[in-house]
Amino acid sequence: MSLTAGIATAAPVTSSITYQGKLTNAAGGPLTGTYSVTFKLYDASTGGITLNTDTHSVTATNG
User: Quick check: is 43 in a domain?
Assistant: First the structure.
Protein backbone atom coordinates (compact mmCIF):
# COMPACT_ATOMS: atom_id res chain seq x y z
CA MET A 1 0.00 0.00 0.00
CA SER A 2 1.29 3.44 -0.89
CA LEU A 3 0.07 6.82 0.36
CA THR A 4 0.87 10.08 -1.37
CA ALA A 5 0.19 13.45 0.21
CA GLY A 6 0.18 16.81 -1.50
CA ILE A 7 0.09 20.38 -0.28
CA ALA A 8 -2.48 22.70 -1.81
CA THR A 9 -1.58 26.36 -2.04
CA ALA A 10 -3.73 29.31 -2.95
CA ALA A 11 -2.98 32.80 -4.20
CA PRO A 12 -3.63 35.60 -1.73
CA VAL A 13 -7.04 37.25 -1.95
CA THR A 14 -6.95 40.91 -2.97
CA SER A 15 -9.62 43.56 -2.79
CA SER A 16 -8.91 45.09 -6.20
CA ILE A 17 -9.98 44.40 -9.76
CA THR A 18 -7.94 45.56 -12.75
CA TYR A 19 -9.93 47.13 -15.58
CA GLN A 20 -9.35 48.95 -18.82
CA GLY A 21 -11.68 50.60 -21.27
CA LYS A 22 -12.32 53.55 -23.53
CA LEU A 23 -14.66 56.44 -22.73
CA THR A 24 -16.63 57.69 -25.73
CA ASN A 25 -19.49 60.09 -26.37
CA ALA A 26 -22.82 59.01 -27.91
CA ALA A 27 -21.35 59.35 -31.42
CA GLY A 28 -18.39 57.08 -30.54
CA GLY A 29 -15.80 59.86 -30.30
CA PRO A 30 -13.12 59.64 -27.58
CA LEU A 31 -13.59 61.73 -24.43
CA THR A 32 -10.97 63.79 -22.61
CA GLY A 33 -11.49 64.97 -19.05
CA THR A 34 -12.36 63.69 -15.59
CA TYR A 35 -15.44 61.49 -15.20
CA SER A 36 -17.21 59.63 -12.42
CA VAL A 37 -17.32 55.88 -13.15
CA THR A 38 -19.42 53.45 -11.09
CA PHE A 39 -18.63 49.72 -10.84
CA LYS A 40 -21.16 47.23 -9.51
CA LEU A 41 -20.60 43.59 -8.51
CA TYR A 42 -23.59 41.22 -8.66
CA ASP A 43 -24.15 37.70 -7.35
CA ALA A 44 -25.45 36.48 -10.75
CA SER A 45 -24.89 37.29 -14.43
CA THR A 46 -28.55 38.37 -14.87
CA GLY A 47 -31.18 39.44 -12.36
CA GLY A 48 -28.76 39.26 -9.46
CA ILE A 49 -28.48 41.18 -6.23
CA THR A 50 -25.92 44.00 -6.03
CA LEU A 51 -23.13 42.89 -3.69
CA ASN A 52 -20.96 46.00 -3.94
CA THR A 53 -21.01 49.44 -5.59
CA ASP A 54 -17.87 51.54 -5.94
CA THR A 55 -17.52 54.93 -7.66
CA HIS A 56 -14.18 56.37 -8.80
CA SER A 57 -12.98 59.51 -10.52
CA VAL A 58 -11.27 58.59 -13.82
CA THR A 59 -9.17 60.92 -15.96
CA ALA A 60 -9.20 60.09 -19.68
CA THR A 61 -7.15 61.46 -22.58
CA ASN A 62 -8.52 60.60 -26.03
CA GLY A 63 -10.82 57.99 -24.56
Answer: yes
